Amino acid sequence: MAILVTGGAGFIGGNFVLDWINHHDELLINLDKLTYAGNLQTLDSVSGHPNHVFVHGDIGNTELVGQLLLEHKPRAVINFAAESHVDRSIHGPAAFIETNVVGTFRLLETVRTYWLECSPVRKQEFRFLHVSTDEVYGTLGPQDPAFREDHPYQPNSPYSASKAASDHLVRAWFHTYNLPVLTTNCSNNYGPFHFPEKLIPLVILHALEGKDLPVYGDGQQVRDWLFVKDHCSALRRVLEAGQIGETYNVGGWNEKANLDVVRMICSLLDELRPRTDGISYAEQIRFVRDRPGHDRRYAIDAHKLEKELGWKPAETFESGLRKTVIWYLEHPDWVQGVTSGSYRQWLTSQYHG
Fold first, then answer.
1. Which of 88-92, 126-130, 140-144, 290-294 is predicted most confidently?
2. What DSSP state is assigned to residue 145?
3. How many CA atoms lie within 13 A of 208 on its CB side?
4. I want to staple 74 with a disulfide (CB 3.0 to 4.6 A). Which of 4, 286, 305, 325 is the partner?
């Protein structure tokens, strides 16, 4: 038995690979394009593991994906591969359309060709799990109920629009071609191995380096925060027992304003790695101009996943954030590799040396 994971060197994908190998004695083929956010240092602990095969490649490469499917005959494909940073999508949307829309289309078609040629038993057992985001639903007012799976799609950034398009493609391939798909829409993830352009690792690293801690606008943008290891357990559960064609929202039940998140990080650092001058890291907070189209609030209603599949997050935001801050303090080599760009050396030596 085997599974194919796309985007398995990224933040969520990499954590999923580590989590899966820890829980399953099953071959995992890890396909990743290794863009700036793909980092093989995240996978150091499974380097050489007999159940982990890394392949450098693009989900849009139908020949490569087709070869991997025929060679390994996976029982499932879990699609993490995506461009995922909102700010980057505002400044350069083309890459998001190419990967998230065109790439997903090509992946679906390649997987469909493979699935049609499977035996009846393998055909029935096969699953395509598409990992998406709550940002496809748009924004919420302060008193609006949290996003449910039937909330209309109202994406407001090039990133969320491209992910919404990919969700629609997955839905269409189920209804039109009967491809056995599952979709999950998650809230903001955080935890180990998070690329430092995102809020939580950015604040941790900037604080330790004595830099300003930038907060968009008034800092009252609200997000629901999900510890990445909880997300991994939810995905394992959906793959195991989710109903074909269904969507499951995955959330942490932790709505926090961005400014409160930054202040919590500062408090943890004040405790765990205090500044030598005795001043709180909170003194480094600086408010900066808000980004265009910045959604005000996201919130996930994860009752369906709990009611139908029995999943609940194990971490509170307080416990997960503490674990995250401690992880960054204890892994300076990983941080240095990312911030210096040395994590790119493998790709350079392997393909351009």
1. 126-130
2. P
3. 20
4. 4
- pTM score: 0.93
Catalytic status, residue 333: no
Catalytic residue among 32, 83, 149, 159: 159
In total, how many domains does the chain have?
A: 1
C-alpha distances (whole Å) from 134 to each of 246, 308, 334 are: 15, 19, 29
> Which 3 state secondary structure label does DSSP give 134?
helix
Give the tokens for residue 20.
């899966």
DSSP label at 282? G
CATH of the domain at 214: 3.40.50.720
Among 32, 58, 83, 134, the one annotated catalytic? 134
Pairing of strands 181-186, 247-250: parallel
Residue 185 has pLDDT above 70, yes or no: yes
Has 281 been annotated as catalytic? Answer: no
Gyration radius (Cα) of the chain, Å: 20
Strands 222-227 and 52-56: unpaired
Cite the DSSP H helix spans in 97-152: 104-116, 120-125
**Domain range for residue 294?**
2-351
What are 48-79's pLDDT values in tens digits?
999 999 999 999 999 999 999 999 999 999 99
Residue 283 bears catalytic tag: no
